[in-house]
Amino acid sequence: MTNAHMPLTSEEVAGRPSSPSDVTAGLMRGTELAAEVVAKAADRAQAFQQRTGVQPCLATVLVGDDPASATYVKMKQNRSKKAGIGSVSVVLPAETTTDELVAQLEKLSDDPAVHGILLQHPVPGHIDERAAFEAIDPGKDVDGVTMHAFAAMAFDEPGFRSCTPGGIIRLLEAYDVPLAGAHAVVIGRSPILGKPVGMLLLASNATVTYTHSKTRDLADIVRTADIVVAAVGRANFVKGSWLKPGAVVIDAGYNEGNVGDVDFEEARQVASLITPVPGGVGPMTIALLLEQTVDAAERQNETVQQAEADLT
């Protein structure tokens, strides 16, 4: 699927908006699109291995024993395996220091057998997370968490995208949501979600307003948005009454009980399109991670080949 609407069920088609007073949002499902992205990445991984004899490899680094983080890492490793991407797992104790974590990430960065590195976040509170992220070689930052990746997104230059923001843009494109000239309101300003998704929307010629916990009259600002990206980390935070009729709503939150940042039932009565939780943004995050791991393997191989050619 490329720049085409995902197929809707008959119930969803019947519920698409006919007027602002009679709106039931269609669902922007990420599951099907993510499956297509992963399938293409798997084909490329297989072709790369056949061509070079090397399997693309993703290294995952987990600090501590948080059950949710461990589950996420295991899921990413399983998805990697199914896509023909090798996986290296590094599990460090919760008492790991910043210096020890940085040393481990630098070691992986220097390992030619590793093409992509994922540091599962958040890390324990005593660790300087930014210092850890910056220890990742930008060429292996397939999760798009370094300052180099953010700069690439901000300046619309080649580089790895933060996976969730990149997945959001792909989802909007797949559903033919017009971005040029649209007013997008981002609720949240984290360096790996809120800030980069705003940069990517800006690069697509949207007009972007960042909002956050200290924003005054937040509901009034959200009500002006054609596109709302909720990434605040608070369950059911965005209410249906906050939305402009026909707005497109991207719920990038995931809270306890499989609940997003948007009050789904309320919002669905006002929006034209909305991502469900789960099954919306989440699958796209992993899909982009795997796709960018294959990208990294190909780029690193090209660099090695060029270096060898320069020596001859």
UniProtKB/TrEMBL annotation:
It comes from the Bacteria. Keywords: Amino-acid biosynthesis, Histidine biosynthesis, Hydrolase, Methionine biosynthesis, Multifunctional enzyme, NADP, One-carbon metabolism, Oxidoreductase, Purine biosynthesis. NADP(+) binds at residues 188-190. Residues 1-24 are annotated as: Disordered. InterPro entries: Aminoacid_DH-like_N_sf, NAD(P)-bd_dom_sf, THF_DH/CycHdrlase, THF_DH/CycHdrlase_cat_dom, THF_DH/CycHdrlase_CS, THF_DH/CycHdrlase_NAD-bd_dom. Pathway: One-carbon metabolism; tetrahydrofolate interconversion. PROSITE patterns: THF_DHG_CYH_2 (PS00767). It holds the Pfam family THF_DHG_CYH_C. The keyword Metal-binding does not apply. Residues 162-300 form the Tetrahydrofolate dehydrogenase/cyclohydrolase NAD(P)-binding domain. It catalyses: (6R)-5,10-methenyltetrahydrofolate + H2O = (6R)-10-formyltetrahydrofolate + H(+); (6R)-5,10-methylene-5,6,7,8-tetrahydrofolate + NADP(+) = (6R)-5,10-methenyltetrahydrofolate + NADPH. Transmembrane segments: none annotated. The keyword Oxidoreductase applies. Residues 28-143 form the Tetrahydrofolate dehydrogenase/cyclohydrolase catalytic domain. CDD domains: NAD_bind_m-THF_DH_Cyclohyd. Catalyzes the oxidation of 5,10-methylenetetrahydrofolate to 5,10-methenyltetrahydrofolate and then the hydrolysis of 5,10-methenyltetrahydrofolate to 10-formyltetrahydrofolate. HAMAP family: THF_DHG_CYH (MF_01576). Homodimer. Belongs to the tetrahydrofolate dehydrogenase/cyclohydrolase family. This is Bifunctional protein FolD. The lineage of its organism: Bacteria, Bacillati, Actinomycetota, Actinomycetes, Propionibacteriales. The gene is folD.
